[in-house]
Amino acid sequence: MIYWIHRIGSAIASIVPRAAAYQIVEWLTPLVLRFYRCQQRNALRNMQHQLGPSVSVKEAQRVVDRVFVNYGKYMVDLLRLPSLRPRTLRRQVLAYGLDNIDQAFIDGKGLIVVTAHVGNWDLAGATLAAMGYPVNAVVDTLEPPRWNDAVQAIRRRLGLKPVALKDGPREMLRCLRRNEILGILIDRPLTDEGVEVQFFGAETRVPAGAATLALRTGAGVVTAVVVRESNYYVAHVGPLIRPNPTGDRSVDIQTLTQEFMDQLESWIRRYPEQLFMFRDMWPSAD
Q1: Where are the alpha helices (DSSP H) in the chain?
Q2: Whole-prediction pTM
Q3: pLDDT of the chain, 286 residues: tens digit per residue
């Protein structure tokens, strides 16, 4: 079923003007949310952490309502993505900090781009590929397999090379050794794995893979987000981080991961209505 929903949605999104599709999302979101009570509760809890104790529940809920509307707009753009040409992609995204990416390629050890479920992470990879960068993206394997094959085929048409998470670090290492970009989403909350970090003033655990790969290979790391502003997108690329191991592996991994999360937090504070985290980001705080 989800395969056909995706196919039909992509076909409709490719012919309906984006502004009209956005308006439809504004109308439909309150109705659709009736079926996603759990995600709403998680999003509200997360937003209360983000905005702090001085913000009322009513105000936090107002922001969460906008989060879900923005997520609907993200889905519109995601469905439109396969029909966009590279030239259109480059024109729709205003990018800051690309020189940090170029510097990593001079080093010759590859580049890890760490991002979060903010704005439009799919557009980030597609835009870099449209600019001529060699981009690999770590992806989950979707079910059913027919849907997974369709989604990965779309990514390849956009110039992205999917790297299945289940394939483990071996293929990720190959990407970096070829002096290519490896994109990783880091903000998946964990309960008893990963590495402990401070995020918006509270402890949580996130995957340690990005820091582990950087320390093992010497690859540089940048954090980046692509966020929507009015009718266009803005890409923010952070400063190049070069791993500097001390010899204490666990400390090095935690320190690097914390630096990634600190930079991502600074952007999320600017764009709280574009963080699409519908799982409990701080499960250990329960």
Answers
A1: 2-15, 18-32, 37-51, 57-80, 86-92, 98-107, 121-130, 145-157, 169-177, 209-217, 249-270
A2: 0.91
A3: 566 666 667 777 778 888 888 888 888 887 777 778 898 999 999 999 999 989 999 999 999 999 999 988 888 888 888 777 878 888 888 999 999 999 999 999 999 999 999 999 888 888 999 899 999 998 877 777 887 777 788 788 888 888 888 767 888 999 999 999 999 999 989 888 899 999 999 999 999 999 999 999 999 999 999 999 877 899 999 999 999 899 999 999 999 999 999 999 999 999 999 999 999 999 865 5
Cα–Cα distances in Å, from 39 out to 18, 79, 224? 26, 22, 25
Work out the burial of residue 17: count CB atoms within 10 Å of its CB; fewer than 13 is exposed, 13-18 middle, 19 or more buried.
Answer: exposed
DSSP state of 144: S
Type of residue found at 178: R
Beta carbons of 265 and 198 less than 8 angstroms apart = no
Amino acid at 112: I
**Parallel/antiparallel/unpaired status of strands 220-229 and 232-237:** antiparallel
Domain definitions of the chain by residue range = 2-285
Here the contacts of 150-156 (C-beta below 8 Å, separation 24 or greater) are 150/3, 150/6, 150/7, 151/6, 154/81, 154/82, 155/125
Beta bridge partners of 247: none
Radius of gyration of the CA atoms of the chain, in A: 19
**CA 239, CA 109: separation in Å to the nearest integer?**
16
Question: Which structure tokens are listed for 148?
Answer: 């997974």
CA–CA gap between residue 106 and residue 119 (Å, rounded): 29
Residue at token pair 């990634």: 260
